[in-house]
Amino acid sequence: MESEAPAGWEFFDAVDFPTDPTHDPMGRAPVRHVVTAVVVGHEGAAWLPRLTEALWALDRRPERLIAVDTGSTDETAELLAEMPSVEPVVSLSARTGFGTAVARGLETAGFAPIPSAVGPYGDDGQLPVVEWLWLLHDDCAPAPKALEKLLLQATLSPETGIWGPKLRLWPRDRELLEVGVTTSLGGRRDTGIENGELDQGQHDQPRQVLAVSSAGMLVRRDVWTTLRGFDPRLPMFRDDIDFGWRASRAGFRVGVAPDAVVYHAQAAATGERALAGTRRHAYQLDRAHAYYTVLANAPAKLLPLLILRFLIGTVVRSAWFLLGKTPSGAVDEWTALLGTLLAGGWTQARKDRRRLDKVPYDDFKGLFSRSVHALRHNLEETGSTISERLREAWADEPEEQVVTTARRAKSTARVAVDQPRWRRQLIRRPFLVAWVFLFVGAFVAARSLIGGGVLRSALLLPPHESLGALWHAAAAAPAGVTPPAWLSQYWALSTITFGPAGAANVLLLGAVPLAALAAWALLRAFVVDRVARAWGASAYGLAVFANGAVSQGRIGTCVAAIVLPLLGAAVHTVARRRRVQIQGSWRAAWFAGICQAVLFAFTPSLGVLVGVTLVVGGVLGLGWRRQGRQLVFSVVLGLLLVLPWTIQLVLHPSRLGQEAGGPPTAAVGPGDSLARLLTGTPVGAPAPWWFAVPLIVIALLALTRESRHRYELLGWFAALSGLIGTLAASRLGGGSGPLMFLMTAGWIMTVTVAWDSVGKSSELIVQGALGVVLVSTLVIAGFWLVRGDDGPLRRGPAQDLPAYLMSAQDPPQNASILVVRKEGTSPTRFSLVRDGGPRMGALEAAPTAEQTKPITDVLSALGGGGTGEEGRQLAALAVDYVYLPAPVDPTLMATLDSLSGLTRASADDGDASWLIDRTKIEGKAPLQDDVRSLWRVLGIIAWIIALISCMPTARRTVATPHGTHARRTS
């Protein structure tokens, strides 16, 4: 090679020119190294100039340089020919793999001849000669001392036949890619390098490894000849691991020389260069070669377990791709596995490699990555991938450019470093501090509700005992009656909260911090001031308590309070993209539809109000453009996801005033109080109505400003919509608790946006108004902590029945209990208690009057004095007990005592109960549940489709040598 480089190359600097000596410190006899370098290029014009500069800069250059071009259509062949002292370029077809290209290049040009001149150590040419093959990619660049350091390690450890350099990120980065590589028996490539890890000398100890990358690999000629080069069945990907594995089986050692540095672009793996000679995806090719490498080299006794492991892994990854809306990735998974297993090439490879087995597997199995490490890496990679993709979830490409305004730049709080840590956190992250307070406060406020039993109140029926019972309630109801849609959604939440009781605890006792967190997610989209944002989110969370939703056990309002801001964030994402080529976001539209479905199910009145607003806004406000269609689509999707409950809402409009969890909530409203109506405080709320007055006054003062933000007007629109909806619901006799909460939420949004606009003002009236807002919020927070969440919400047994009646409902007796309530001249009310009594959703799915007519007729007869046949009639209706809770009507009790077939049973003071003799009569229950499995299955499919549609798209990745970080290929 020429001794001088062309003028102008500036790729390397002093860092790449170490000055330490290259002699052997152990004083071994010198060895003469003869190196033949082979560069394989394919469409590498973008990288070859750097490689040429690197070859000119080498301090120790190879004796022969062979260049091979595999069917390039760019300037690769010309650039290869311009390399220093290169042999004539060998041209091959584009279908030629890397290993085959190296072999053809050596066949054409041969290894470098052994010179007879004086050797590099000043010898007389008679020293032992070791021939080496140095492999280079067209997208790599060795540092000036790379080859010299590799040869030095070869001199120090002559028993090692393969050496590899330290790989860093192209073009000249300190980020590590690889310092040796290994694999798990599951086929996962592992380097032990963390994602983004910088080279600080932490891996600079030469050591034995399973394999090294083919980019910069130095192979002794006898090793190359014995192993017959790379496997031609592996044209790219995993060929280096297969080569190192075969070398270990044949008794050769593989080592890494960290002092030798090579920069690598990994163009094929990262998708920067199209794969040559194949139509297969890079991911599919990588997976297929991983399976082939393991199957061709693993011990025979492990093959059945390995194939089972491959199958399980393929199923899991295929499910991941299907959930991530990348079905082609699932196809790649199965194509790679089945194609490799059925092609049979690995079976022939096992036969061919039996000649190499000189070292048993147990002697070098320590070089492989452990399965637990592969599992940990998979979990870390999955977590980082989900986190990365969620940040892009609602950003349909091309994404809108984020403009950093001067106002937003000034919003970053700067705190002197000498300030106490708590003060710095308070100033920089005010919401974090506020949310921690709300989180801890939730436990303090729930102090009276922690213990045994379940949460219940007059507006909250007890939750079901198990997930199975809840699922049955969601799928079963009397003929002609539709079970409420929210039971299915509640069941899904219960699966991750350790049962239905856990879901009630989370939604009620954790409603304040959860609602605050959801509000923060919305406000951060358009509120710049951090303090204003923190106040708005905290005030929104406390409004759930002030509205009485927690203390009254109104689980529907609590769910709506959490979902409303999330729906607002999704709608904001859809509506704000107007200046990009692709407007709106279908992912956000799908998510908005899911939020709409939750509102329709838990608080139908609020869901209808929001749905009508979105439809009108989408059609009139945004026009019938893509964004408007997306908003209308979200409403339609929400209605479809709660079928057939949607039909029930249309046929029975009175159900719009109900909330999930208990009986119809007609009593939850402003009553006849004008003050409660205007302040959005329902009857029975724990906080006085005048607590809301400062908030409303500040919201009114915000209207007097000359310039108002559009989000302030949206807040007022929400407040007025809630007010009008409350008036309409109250006049129609329905519950209006969720609508009154919407009023408060609108005022909070108005004040928050106004604060964000004038918060930096030094005017006294502005500062005074903000002070009033803060003080009133602190007063409500203190009131919340002192009063607590209990009353009328309480924790106790699921049923108010004697213990023996509750136990009688369990197998094998499975007793049915007729609970009859009659107070004075009021009409008689009854309920048939079975399987643990009435639970959540029982009243929404109550049987019709026609279905309960047999029991009604019997009770009517008892109220008239009875005919003496009521005992037999109750037995025929499969009733086992009649129970009268206090206060008991004396006339009805005397009538029941006189009936034949009824025996007085023990009861608590003031109560009365009778056991019905059913030994001679085979009874048939009048109310039989009709299980609607088809609707539930269709509902599950619809929800899965909706959830998948709002999730980010999964990416197919190739296991490149970049630590545990996978690279995108599609």
Describe the secondary-structure layout.
Elements: E1 32-41, H1 48-57, E2 64-70, H2 76-81, E3 90-92, H3 98-109, E4 129-137, E5 140-142, H4 146-156, E6 160-169, E7 176-178, E8 182-183, E9 189-190, E10 207-208, E11 218-220, H5 221-227, H6 239-249, E12 253-264, H7 282-297, H8 303-323, H9 327-343, H10 345-352, H11 361-364, H12 371-391, H13 406-410, H14 421-428, H15 430-445, E13 454-456, H16 467-475, E14 476-478, H17 486-494, H18 500-509, H19 511-523, H20 530-546, H21 555-576, H22 586-602, H23 604-621, H24 626-641, H25 645-651, H26 674-679, H27 693-702, H28 710-732, H29 737-758, H30 764-787, E15 794-796, H31 803-808, E16 817-821, E17 829-833, H32 853-863, H33 870-876, E18 881-884, H34 890-897, E19 902-905, E20 912-916, E21 929-931, H35 933-949, E22 957-958, E23 967-968
Parallel strand pairs: 1-2, 1-4, 2-3, 6-12, 16-18
Antiparallel strand pairs: 4-11, 5-12, 6-7, 6-11, 8-9, 10-12, 13-15, 14-21, 16-17, 18-20, 19-20, 22-23
Walkthrough of the structure:
- This protein is of the alpha+beta class.
- It folds into 3 domains: 32-113 and 127-371, Spore Coat Polysaccharide Biosynthesis Protein SpsA, Chain A, CATH 3.90.550.10; 428-787, no CATH class; 801-916, no CATH class.
- Helices cover 46% and strands 11% of the residues.
- The protein has 35 helices and 23 strands.
- The strands form 6 sheets. Strands 1, 2, 3, 4, 5, 6, 7, 10, 11 and 12 form a 10-stranded mixed β-sheet that branches. It has a 5-stranded mixed β-sheet with strand order 17-16-18-20-19.
- Helix 1 (48-57) links the parallel strand 1 and strand 2.
- Helix 6 (239-249) packs parallel to helix 7 (282-297).
- The longest helix is centred in the last third of the chain and has 24 residues, at 764-787.
- The relative contact order is 0.08.
